[in-house]
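Please predict the structure of the following assembly.
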Amino acid sequence: MMHEINEALDFLRKRGVNKPDVGIILGTGLGNRFVKEIKSPVFINYNSIPNFPISTVEHHKGQLIYGEVKGKKVLAMQGRFHYYEGYSLRQVTLSVRVMKLLGIKNLLISNAAGNLNPEWKKGQLMLIDDHINLIPDNPLRGENNELFGPRFPDMSEPYSNVLNKKLRQIAKQKKIKLNEGVYIPVMGPNLETRAEYRFLRKIGGDAVGMSTVPEVIVANHMGLPCCAISVLTDDCDPDNLKPVNLKEIVKVAGKAEPELTELYVELISKL
Amino acid sequence: MITFEKILSAMLNQVKEATEFLQKKIKHKPQVGVILGTGLGNLFIDEIKNPVVINYNVIPHFPVTTVTSHKGQLIFGEVKKKQVMVMRGRFHYYEGYSMQQIALPIRVMKLLGVENLLVSNAAGNLNLKWHKGELMMLDDHINLQPDNPLRGENSELFGPRFPDMSEPYSKKLNTKFRKIAKAKKIKLHKGVYAAVQGPSMETRAEYRYLRMLGADVVGMSTVPEVLVANHMGISCCAVSVLTNDCDPDNLQRVELQHIVDTASLSEKKLVTLFTGLIGKL
């Protein structure tokens, strides 16, 4: 794995990526508005980067964007990799290891998620305070490389209290409604049944999705502070469940994108 | 083409070759199997008379343990006049082994003659009435690991397709444990072990979830071995050393060294229970 990472590192450094400060992962339907904030962008297609998987999800572009936001050097992933696409979790999280070794000090993550909390509504944002991992594999399974981090990484604060505090303050100033709760990642790709939504709610979930946690586990393994925001794209009310279509999810995510962008741009300025 | 029969016979062959290798190294058939978990691999070893030590890496088809806090040895010898076979260091799913690899040593134990299996582990304490450093006897488990060592074609030579789990931990052995604990004045809780994959530790939300499900402790081992032992009709029992308190409202950072140190402090109590039980088998 070290060899694969080094090849990707060498390639990206040669393409001009020089000690970025912040890494960003842009989720489903969130890959447009934020990108416009990046000054002097350099676009690097995933398929040109050695050992990077290629995103198979149609509405995810597959490129790294290196540039500047609020005077900070950022490296943004426009499109991510999911377990349901068939990648191993080691493949899914390779980019996080690469970003950390390139120099990022903080990782900002976004995703589209189903809303399980009856007091919230689709289109709103949720700051992830914690997670319950139901994906049936772990990116750290296999022999541990102590150069990256410990065998049993602590998860008492998977999402940085420092970053979350800043996000809460920014949301208050900007009058953006920012819920806070527990994200549950499942394998997917089928959506959940009514009974599954009840189960997920019962065990403590506020939002359900198919991503983010593998990246968060690897970031924590490497001692990289991270934060994550879910855009609630559909209401998962088991007593009144309607068929969801992806178009609708992408549309709702797109509407919430300006708020998410505002939060993250402001956070970057305060790092 | 690879057929189920070929996979099965390959597995049977591995078990056979490992068993035959070990039979040549030992004089007596072992009656009792013991698995020593994280931080529990030292004091019990001192109790073994005439030990024959065999490193895992010389045994055909045995995986090699990758966890630094685990030694990788089989030790044959005598405890309380019983022939024992002790695994010093075990294999975990999070290390990358298949469940079939984790099962192999247990199958070998059975073929060598083991009738009772004593398992130990280090576990996180979810039950806030209890405290780290104390011991819990497993009364039951909730298996949350995403694979099963019995997945694949079943060999009826080993056991049934659908092994019963109404008594995964032998009531007979557990009753003996309770008596020994009482006689020796050792505090021994009884409860439910939730087995998760790891290796990342649990989040606060995950601890709440596990507690809600009915778990008293959480760990990353034991259940695969117990499933295989039950499959083959080996009676088993297991004791967790509670190495850290998992209070979601007041969660502290956990370091491996702290877990190992806490386990070591409780090791003496565990050894008293295990040697006491072996004496009464």
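Residues 56 and 86 of chain A are 9 Å apart (CA to CA). Strands of chain A lie at 22-26, 39-45, 63-69, 72-78, 106-115, 125-131, 178-185, 207-209, 226-235.
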